[in-house]
Amino acid sequence: MEITKLRLFINYEKEEQWLNKMAAEGLNLSSYKFGRYTFEEGPPGEYIYRLELLKGEPTDEQSRDYLAFMEDYGVECVDTYMNWAFFRKKSTEGPFEIYSDFDSIIGHYKRVTYLLGTVGVVNLFIALFNVTLSQYNMYLSIVNFIIFVLFIPILLSYIRKINDLKKEQALYEK
Q1: pLDDT tens-digit profile of 148-160?
Q2: Pick from 93, 121, 146: which residue ends a domain?
Q3: Is 174 helix (H, G, I), strand (E, B) or coil?
Q4: Of 21, 124, 157, 173, which has the fewest Cβ atoms less than 10 A away?
């Protein structure tokens, strides 16, 4: 039986936690389209989910090669949306982490930070631009400004994680 849930996430880590909670309850992700998650019922805890912001579009040759590489290691790409990939692996096969070294983890956080920063700054510029127009645009300006403000704590947390990972990496390299 298919179950659809509507939800929006800005923080991909919280989204990943939520998907794993759903899997623990026996709901396995089968598809995703902007805020619309479709699940199929299955054994509770059957899968572990991970999300990744790919370096390019899923249709790019480099991304296709990477997705094939992941599949060779028993990792299924459930769906992609824009540059995001939704991966899962059977929980019986042990822990599932996408990254095994500091450079790749830091690179992923940098990609996510750049994406969120770009979206946040674009919303700030739209908010400022709309302030100068009609009163109707003032309401849009408020929405864009709220989006910008919502992105700030998440961006700061990712920047902190990047800095912490760099410090930890420096300790291991000595």
Answers
A1: 999 999 999 999 9
A2: 93
A3: coil
A4: 173
Instruction: Give me the domain span that covers residue 126.
Output: 102-173
Only one residue has tokens 């003032």, namely: 138
Same-domain status, 14 and 57: yes
> Is 72 in the same domain as 15?
yes
Backbone dihedral region for residue 87 (phi beyond 0: left; psi -120 to 50: alpha; all else: beta): beta
Question: What are the φ and ψ backbone dihedral angles of 100, each rounded to 5 degrees?
Answer: -120, -5
Give the count of domains, the chain.
Answer: 2
Quick: pLDDT tens for 122-171: 999 888 888 877 666 788 888 899 999 999 999 999 999 999 999 999 88
Task: Measure the CA–CA gap between 88 and 24, rounded to whole angstroms.
Answer: 13
Read off the DSSP letter of residue 56. Answer: S
What's the mean pLDDT when you consider all of the chain? 93
The encoded tokens of residue 3 equal 């179950």
Q: Which residue has the tokens 């039986």?
A: 1
Same domain, yes or no: 89 and 125? no
- On whether both 20 and 80 belong to a single domain, the answer is yes
